[in-house]
Amino acid sequence: MAEIISIENLTKKFGDVTVIDNVNLSIERGKIYGIIGRNGSGKTVLFKLITGYLSPTGGRVVVSGKEIGKDIDFADNIGIIIENPGFLKGYTGFKNLAYLAGIRNVIGKEEIRESMEKVGLDPDSNKKVGKYSLGMKQRLGIAQAIMENPEILILDEPMNSLDNQGVEEIRKLLMELRDEGKTIVLASHNKEDIEILCDKVCEMDRGKLKIQDL
After folding, report:
1. Residue 20 maps to a domain
2. For residue range 137-161, what is the model confidence (pLDDT) as tens digits?
3. Is residue 68 part of a domain?
4. Is 25 domain-assigned?
5. CATH code of the domain in which 3 resides
6. CA–CA separation, 56 and 207 (whole Å)
7. Domain span at 66
8. What is the C-alpha separation between 114 and 105, in angstroms, rounded?
9. Phi-psi group of 68: left, alpha or beta (phi > 0 → left; psi -120 to 50 → alpha; rest → beta)
10. 200 in a domain, yes or no?
């Protein structure tokens, strides 16, 4: 088994409240993992622990052989959507992505253009993000997550605000990315997303995680 993320005895407390309770999960390269569960079950906190946005109270997360918070602060091979993507309203979609790409400076304009086209946005549009619909902002968030060609995608409700056509297009894109060898971990409230996309499904319930049989 080619493991790319290892979650071991992971616990996160906020004061006296345990939000992630001794979670263990081995995530294999090139598969799509679905995380289901009610609001408040701990899905978003789990994603923030995997990506390094939060530090665990106990246990550890290892990504590509490196422990988050110990060997590295953040994994540089992860593309992320967690909560609503935040963009500069006065900039176009392309300019927003170019600004963000400039932080690490590992891609150029061509990769930004490609990522926008993959999610159905026009990189040459002069429309400012402040005038984008919610669905367009969501597409731009997905373009940001994929633009640096990461090995892993952590996507919290990636279909939020998308119309039916948008959902179909993004599902197709995610399956193509998996076929290219990407590893995708996604949370979705849509049963159909989970059934169509996921190789493995895990349920979060009050901070505990259990793998479901497909």
Report:
1. yes
2. 999 999 999 999 999 999 999 999 9
3. yes
4. yes
5. 3.40.50.300
6. 13
7. 1-75+183-214
8. 16
9. beta
10. yes
- Per-residue pLDDT of 7-62, as tens digits, reads 999 999 999 999 999 999 999 999 999 999 998 899 999 999 999 999 999 999 99
Structural domain count of the chain: 1
What Cα–Cα distance (Å) separates residue 125 from each residue in 10, 95, 99, 116? 44, 10, 16, 11
What 3-state class would DSSP assign to 72? strand
155 phi/psi in degrees, rounded to 5: -125, 110
Taken in order 130, 135, 136, 138, the sign of the CA dihedral is: positive
Q: What is the pLDDT of residues 89-129, one digit of tens each?
A: 999 999 999 999 999 999 999 999 999 999 999 999 999 99
Name the nearest CA neighbour of 153 among 52, 202, 80.
80
Q: Are 116 and 123 in contact (CB under 8 A)?
A: yes
